[in-house]
Amino acid sequence: MNKFLDLGNSPLANSFLSSESEFANEAFFPLAVYFCNECSLVQLTDVVDPDVLFSNYLYVTGTSDTILSHNREYADAVIDLMKLGSRDLVLEVASNNGNLLSCFKEKGIRTLGVEPAKNIAEIANRAGIETIVAFFNSTTASQISDIHGKAQAIVANNVLAHVDDPMDFLSGCKSLIDDEGLVVIEVPYLEEFVEFIEFDTVYHEHLCYFSITSLMRLFESVGLSIVRVDRVAVHGGSIRVYAGKIDKYPDHSLDAVAFFRREQELGLNSPETFVSFANKVGVLRERLRALLISLKDQGKTIAGYGAPAKGNTLLNYCSIGSEILDFVVDKNPLKVGLYTPGTHLHVKPVSAVFESQPDYLLILAWNFADEIMEQLVEYRSIGGRFIIPVPEPRIIEV
Question: What is the pTM of this model?
Fold first, then answer.
């Protein structure tokens, strides 16, 4: 294992603080990324107790129009490919507030969610999406099968990367689908991570950063084969991977093999690629800080837009606090009124942008930058400007 990126000691990216009295006792944990020479998996090795990370969670899906549209497309793609009907069961692991499952339910498909965060599962259940409060593993899968029977599709959207034992997780998925069933995994894609210097997507929840090369090995180890791979634009570039039981699909699909070969050409199986990546991260940090400090020296005011986990990695690694940003805003009501981990910036509602009218907005949720800039027509009309930090810090004047 080669360590190639060390972001230092960092707070948990979704552990927002409710008051200033909590600042002094805030917990920090090592945040470093490694490359495995044997299986080409990019991963963290310092694992935080998942009960600490997820039992009371603040991230909810559906606060972005981009995600809402993505979820509808996602459900339609699975339904059409598998020809699902009203008697079929779709189970989602880490189902959050049930937004994706609601897209299946609207089409008459039976649904069941599994979500470890009790506060978020309650939101789903109130919305009529049956959701079990539990961490998913092979034991949970067996219990679900006994009560609900086999699923025709298991959807795991941005969760495999969060799991400390992915083999047990996928073994549970395999045991829970019927013989014709598919496991559908969506994860951020390593190619975009490297190409667009998406270092801020590194935080303690994200234990793994997947390529098709590493996923092939992982699926094979539990008796699954890749049936299909789709690239999707969400979250800065992701892959949606469909996998079935190896008895029915003895070989990986041709498109999976094509991905594998391309990854070799790109050097995603080479440690040198990631050493180069880490050097680019250091350059990005210095350029972003230089840009922001220059603007502050000119007397400009700057606020942050979005309080996502990735934003907190960026703020902490780049040492961007209240001396640079006046505040941050977010559409998620669960975060409004809290303070960002580590940097202790006050999270305000989006209306604060129009009340304070900062000269610049640093878009921390850069994966939704186009949507955000389109929504802030009024701010733009009064001369407001945007800063996008990744992959190259730049000012957008529209």
Answer: 0.91
